[in-house]
Specification:
324 residues; alpha/beta; two-stranded antiparallel ribbon; binds NADP nicotinamide-adenine-dinucleotide phosphate; NADP_OxRdtase_dom; Aldo/keto reductase family oxidoreductase; oxidoreductase activity; AKR_Detox_Biosynth
């Protein structure tokens, strides 16, 4: 299996694993950041750096801006840190407010204003990667291209990507963009395996593949777009945190993960990530745990190369029935 991945071409210092910062900053409300949240964020970032992670994934909405804010405080305390890591953030989701319901907004004005807010909270002059968080039904490719040209010219953003978009939406945007979209961040894990189902079982009546996926995986592979997997650890469902009432296949798969992890002499978290890494698309898993012990448990993911048989054993166990 090749250990190379697509983002290395445009962002050479990116690590294969990405640290997801959604769990930093405390609660999703107006409660100010306290010392406990500061210590929590510092310990998580320290553990992530320790296992070699250089790319940190944010979004303007995470804990209502507090994730970026607390991260910005860490950058300020250690002036050399910004240049040792890469910052990615996202914009385009708006929560309900006085002017409307929860909605998606990829208008030029909103993108530009969001980026200014992100840079201000992080206390940095530039983002290495900006992702458009979700497709906005009202998005217009020309307007997005204009916003991108301004962000690029001002030096505020170095690379542009998307999240939760399918191939048709990406192709539409790419038509007017002067630069390639570098990444698409999607929910991909052993638990959320539509991305494989769709291509494997498309001609099967029982196939569970989501139509949303269509040929998105292949589009990204063909066009050199980095696939990033959010939810990569499946919220711990296969590594000790499955709810009692989870489907039988989840409990059986968690036991299988433990067994294979023991055989490979790694933690369950590393084994789970190795399953994503084994796919030839060169996926970048985004880990969302902020618990230092669980972050360190991901450290050996790149050392494990699952055999075809092990990979399929996990996939078939997770889907809960044999392949057609
Ligand atoms: N693009 C998008 O639309 C989108 C959507 C969601 C997330 N994301 C990004 O992807 C990252 C990861 O996504 P995620 O947070 O949904 O996924 P995840 O890594 O699968 O789940 C992490 C969450 O599960 C909890 N958890 C409890 N027990 C766990 C265990 N044994 N192992 C691992 N986690 C356990 C973690 O809490 P502890 O911190 O206590 O471990 C954390 O809240 C986010 O941080 C964010 O950067 C992107």
């Amino acid at each position: 299996m090749t250990q190379s991945f697509v983002l290395q071409r445009t962002v050479p210092t990116s690590s294969r694993l990405v640290f997801g910062c959604m769990g930093l900053g405390g609660s999703w409300d107006a409660q100010p950041i306290g010392d406990q949240e500061r210590r929590h964020a510092a310990a998580a970032v320290e553990a992530a750096l320790e296992i070699g992670i250089t790319l940190f994934d944010h979004a303007d909405i995470y804990t209502l801006g507090k994730a970026e804010q607390v991260f910005g405080e860490l950058l300020k305390q250690d002036p050399g840190l910004r240049e040792r890591l890469l910052l990615q953030s996202k914009c385009g989701i708006r929560f309900a407010d006085g002017s409307g319901p929860k909605r998606y907004d990829l208008s030029q004005d909103y993108i530009l204003a969001s980026v200014d807010g992100i840079l201000q909270r992080l206390g940095t002059e530039y983002l290495d990667v900006l992702l458009l968080h979700r497709p906005d039904p009202l998005m217009e490719a020309e307007e997005i291209a204009e916003a991108w040209l301004k962000l690029k010219a001002s030096g505020k953003v170095r690379q542009l990507g998307v999240s939760n978009m399918h191939s048709g939406q990406m192709a539409l945007l790419q038509q007017t963009l002067p630069d390639p979209l570098v990444a698409n961040q999607l929910e991909m894990s052993l638990l959320k395996h539509d991305w494989i189902e769709n291509g494997t079982c498309f001609n099967d009546d029982q196939g569970k593949g989501s139509r949303v996926w269509s040929d998105t995986l292949q589009y990204c592979q063909q066009h050199g777009v980095q696939l990033q997997a959010w939810g990569a650890l499946a919220r711990g469902w296969y590594s000790g945190a499955a709810p009692q009432d989870a489907p039988a296949a989840v409990h059986a798969t968690a036991a299988l993960v433990q067994q294979l992890a023991a055989q490979h002499q790694v933690a369950a978290e590393s084994l789970l990530l190795a399953w994503l890494l084994r796919h030839p698309a060169g996926i970048q898993p985004v880990i969302g745990t902020a618990h230092p012990g669980r972050i360190r448990a991901c450290a050996d993911a790149l050392k494990v190369v699952l055999s075809r048989e092990e990979w399929y054993q996990l996939y078939v166990s997770a889907r809960g029935q044999e392949l057609p």
